[in-house]
Amino acid sequence: MLRDLPVEVLSLKDFPGVPEVEEDGSTFRDNALKKAREVSRHISETVLADDSGLEVDSLGGQPGIHSARYAGPEATDGANAVFDGTSAVMLSAETAIGHDPVLVVATMARIAGRADQRFDYDGWAERLKHRHVTEAAGLDAKVTDTMTMAAWRAAMDMHANAIICITRSGFTARAIARFRPEAKILAYSPDPRTVHQLSMSWGATPLRSDAHGRFSEMTDWAVADATSKGLLRSGDVVVVVAGSREGAEAADTMRLVRVR
Prior knowledge:
The protein is α/β, with parallel strands linked by helices. The protein has 2 domains: about 10-115, no CATH class; about 120-260, Pyruvate kinase, C-terminal domain (Pyruvate Kinase, Chain: A, domain 1), CATH 3.40.1380.20. It contains 8 helices and 7 strands, in the order H-E-E-H-H-H-H-E-H-E-H-E-H-E-E. A hairpin with a 5-residue loop joins strand 1 and strand 2. It is elongated, with a radius of gyration of 24 Å.
């Protein structure tokens, strides 16, 4: 289109200092305009921007598989999954058929991140507190269910920086995560398999625990370990929930700690 004009055409690769522009417009045109304005502001040159890639009629005018923006039919499903409280999303075959699967993953990550930013966490937790994940479970599970709800409430009221869960099976950490707390979740477990599984739990940072003994000893160890790893610092308020002793079947004890 510009071949016969006396102009030099450059790409963003010629301007390595230009930051990536967040594509949060509702249409291709909105995103193209935003990118053009942002890039022009950084390089003080005339900018042409396009946001549609290669559109395919059979895909309803959506980008084709050779476009970096191709995310397939699951793009909207991914955002809806976040709004429905899903802990993690995955790419199936129909989504991963794009020409550049790495960019597809990056696109899905941006979609999930934006949906996460718009998620109504307070409303979600308030609705969830009237429901239980252990309706038909035994006493130990119900105790953990109740204690994790109390821990979420304490963390919110005290503006806690973190919630530490010491758990063997991972149930305590997942029970806390269902409330989507603002405080970060530090999930300690002595079981390597549980540590790996908790990487799929919303908001949880899974950590291997070497703590032994009663609740107070495990609490002191976990707080010291998290502090040494830079996850906590002096003055932070932390909610700790775990069993009253090593090997306990229920998370029946909670403690508020200020890091020294």
